[in-house]
Amino acid sequence: MSGETDLAKLLAGLDPELHAGEYVFVTSPDRSTPPDVEPLLIFEEPEGRTLVLPRERAEAAGLESAFPSAWIVLRIHSALEAVGMMAAISTALAGAGISCNVVSAYHHDHLFVPRDRADEAVAILRGLGRDGAR
């Protein structure tokens, strides 16, 4: 398994990158994905298929959506078995009253935070990086 596992190095190297645009969550109880929607994420749950996609794609397809979000990528390559990084991030964001939905992929972790709090979330993440470097 590749990727960083040392918590101090993980926090020091978060390097958050804010993507442009607004992203939303959609559910499809019948597990269908409309053609041409091209979601960022598809996740299967017993209740239905969850899609995360740009707001404009959801609207164009006439899909009801939830949680208008900003997408932040943590550029550090964290190991899937790393311990404590998400706990530190969640604690810091929760302390500021910022909700966060996390998707951990093979190379990076992806955070979806309220769009109107995105810049504040990035600043908090950068602060964790400075604190982790000490």
TrEMBL record:
Pfam families: ACT_3. Transmembrane segments: none annotated. It comes from the Bacteria. Residues 2-69 form the DUF2241 domain. InterPro entries: ACT-like_dom_sf, DUF2241. This is DUF2241 domain-containing protein. The lineage of its organism: Bacteria, Bacillati, Actinomycetota, Actinomycetes, Streptosporangiales.
